[in-house]
Amino acid sequence: IAFLLKLYLGSVKDFVNFNAKQDAELLHKAMKGIGTDEDTILMLLTSRSNNQRQEIKAAYKKAHGKDLVSALKSELGGLFETLVVALMTPPISYDASQLHKALKGAGTDDDVLIEILASRTCAQIKDIIKVYKKECGGKLEKDITGDTSGHFQKLLVILLQGSRDEGVDEDRIEKDAKELFAAGEGKVGTDVEKFINILGNRSHEHLRLVFDAYKNLSGNDIEDSIEGETTGNLENLMLAVVKCAKSVPAYFAESLNGSMRRAGTDDQTLMRIMVSRSETDMLDIRACFKKMYGASLYNTIQDDTAGDYGKALLYLCGGKD
Fold first, then answer.
1. Chosen domain end from 246, 267, 288
2. Which one, out of 2, 186, 200, 266, has a CA that is 20 to 30 A from the CA of 277?
3. How many CB atoms neighbour CB 279 within 10 A?
4. Keywords, A to Z (predicted)?
5. In terms of Cα–Cα distance, which of 269, 242, 240 is closest to 83?
C-alpha cells in the first residue's frame, strides 16, 4: 500500500520496460562527438526514478569504464548541470550533501538546515546522519552545534535525534496546549524551552490536535503566537516545524512560491525541493500550490525559469493543474 501511495503522490515513478544498459548507451551517444544532446539527457533522467538512475550509472561504468556523473558534468554547465548532478544523487546522500554544503565554509545557510530537519521523517533523519558521517567525513550534530547557537541550536539538535513520540497521547493534548499558552501569550516574556520541548518531541498527529486546542484556548493560531514571541532563525525553525506538522506538502508549496515570486529566483531552493519531493509528494504539493495561490505550479516554474534547466524542472513537476 505504501508503495502504491508513493507512486500516486510522486510525479516521477519507475519507468516501465526499463533497461539500464540501453539507457546508458543513449546517454553515451548524447554526449559523444561534437556538441551535446541535452534534450535526450533531460528527458531520460527526469523520466527515470532515482533507483533506476543508479542502475544506469552502474551500467554506464561497466560499459565505458568511467563515472556517468563526471561525464555529464564535463558536457553540461550552469544550473542544468547542478540539477542533473542532484538527480543522479541518491535521496539521502543528496540531503546529507546539502546539509554539508550549508555548514561548510564562511557562514551557515540556516534555511537549508531548517527545511531538511523540519520536514524529514525520523527514519530519514537517522539515515541522513549515517550517510553524512560516511560521505561528508564528519558528525552532523557536531557540525551543527559548531555552527549554530542558543535556542535555535537546541531545537535543531532535538530534531536531529529523530525520536518524536509515536501516535497521540489524549491525556496530554489539553495540557500541552495550556503549557504553550502559559509559555507565550499567557505571560510577560517567553518560556522558549517549553515551546522547543513540545514542538521538537511530539508526533505530528499529536501536534495537530494540540494546535486545535491552542486555538480554542487563546483564539489565535499557534503561528501567531510564535511570530509574536520569537524572532530570527528560531522563529523560522519553529514555524517550519508547525507547518510541517500540519501539512508537509503545504509547507513545500509555500517554500516554492517564496523561491519564485520575488525579484530574482532562488534557484537553489527551487531545485532542491523539486528534486527531493519528485518521488515523494509532488502531486500533493501541486494541489496545495494551486489551492493556496490560485496558479499552477507548472506555469509558475515556466514563467520563472528558462532553457534546459527550466524544461527539466517542468518534467519533474509532472504536468499542469
1. 246
2. 200
3. 20
4. Annexin, Calcium, Calcium/phospholipid-binding, Repeat
5. 269
Do 280 and 226 have their domain in common?
no
Average pLDDT over residues 184-212: 91
**Calpha distance 3→175 (Å, rounded):** 37
pLDDT digits (tens, 9 = 90+) for 254-292: 999 999 977 789 999 999 999 999 999 999 999 999 999
213 in any annotated domain: yes
* Residues belonging to the chain: 321
Domain count, the chain: 3
Residues 266 and 295 in one domain: yes
Radius of gyration of the chain (CA): 21
Contacts of 35 (CB under 8 A, 6+ apart): none
Nearest alpha-carbon partner for 202 in 232, 158, 254: 158
48: left (phi over 0), alpha (psi -120 to 50) or beta: beta
217 shares its domain with 291: no
Domain that holds residue 4: 1-88+249-321
Least confident of 35-39, 57-61, 111-115, 249-253: 35-39
User: Which residues are within 8 A (CB) of 300 and not within 5 positions of it... i.e. 6 or more apart?
Assistant: 256, 257, 260, 261, 289, 293
In the chain, the amino acid numbered 226 is: I
165 in a structural domain: no
In the numeric block, which cell numbers belong to residue 95?
A: 540531503
In a domain, 282, yes or no: yes
CATH number at residue 64: 1.10.220.10
- Please, which pLDDT band fits residue 9 given cuts at 50, 70 and 90? confident
Q: Note whether residue 75 is domain-resident.
A: yes
Report the mean per-residue pLDDT for the chain: 94
pLDDT tens sequence across 49-58: 999 999 999 9
**What's the maximum distance between 2 C-alpha atoms anywhere in the chain?**
71
